[in-house]
Structure formats: structure tokens, C-alpha cells
Amino acid sequence: MELLTWLDPGPDAGLGAVFVASFLAATLLPGGSEIVFAGFVQLHPDQAWPALALAAVGNTLGGMTTYVMARAIPHAATPPRAAWIERHGAPVLLLAWAPVIGDALCAAAGWLRLPPIACAVWMGLGKLARYGLILAGMTL
């Protein structure tokens, strides 16, 4: 705890770090936003709800960045591996938080031209649930 206190830039800068870490972790860049989120909440439990909101929004915007980049790729015939995403549509993005497959799901949704608002909503719900579970696990 002493090391975390020494590194702590304060709640305002820390909330910004939660947002940036969450955004970057959802793009094709590797990152561990969960550690930043949990560390911030541990230092500033009174800021848990704003941190939860910023982590979910940042992570969703990062996923939508991947979606938009993939949407720019010319669309051809749907490969068999992406057919189930096309068949089930935007709700599969509830799993966009998952390591390894999350980025691929966001990219596939963009490439398949699934509706962007529906994708953002489903993606956001899944990412909010993930950070909510982390927060709930910290309070047990």
C-alpha cells in the first residue's frame, strides 16, 4: 500500500489514467486496464463509481476504435469463422471484454458492418459488467 500511495498522482489524474488505460487496452495495443482500475479504486474507494464509468466508457471507445478501423477494410465473402458473428449479430459483443477474442470480435463486427450503435451498446454492457465484477470482488 505504501508504494501505491507514493505513486498516486491524486484522484483527478488517476481517473484520467483509468480512462486512458481502459481505452488503450481495448485497442490492438496490449494493456492491463484492470490493474490500473483496481489500484485506483484501492487508493480512492470514494471514487469507485466514477472510475467504473470511465473504465467502461474508455474500454468501449477503444473497442469501437477497432470496430471503425475494421469497417474501413473492404468487405468480401464472409469467412466461415465469422459466420456465427454475422448470424448472432451485435449481442456477441457482450464478450468483447474477453482476452484474445475481444479485439477479434470488435474487428469482425466492424468488418461485417454490424450496426454501430447496437455494437457500442452491447460492447459497453459487457465491459461495464467486467469492471463491475472486478469492483464487486474488491469489496468482498
TrEMBL record:
PANTHER family linked to this entry: ALKALINE PHOSPHATASE LIKE PROTEIN, INNER MEMBRANE PROTEIN YQAA
Keyword Membrane (UniProt): yes
Native source species: Denitromonas iodatirespirans
Transmembrane segments: 15-41, 48-70, 90-112
Keywords per UniProt: Membrane, Transmembrane, Transmembrane helix
UniProt name for this protein: DedA family protein
Signal sequence bounds: none
Annotated InterPro entries: DedA_domain (IPR051311)
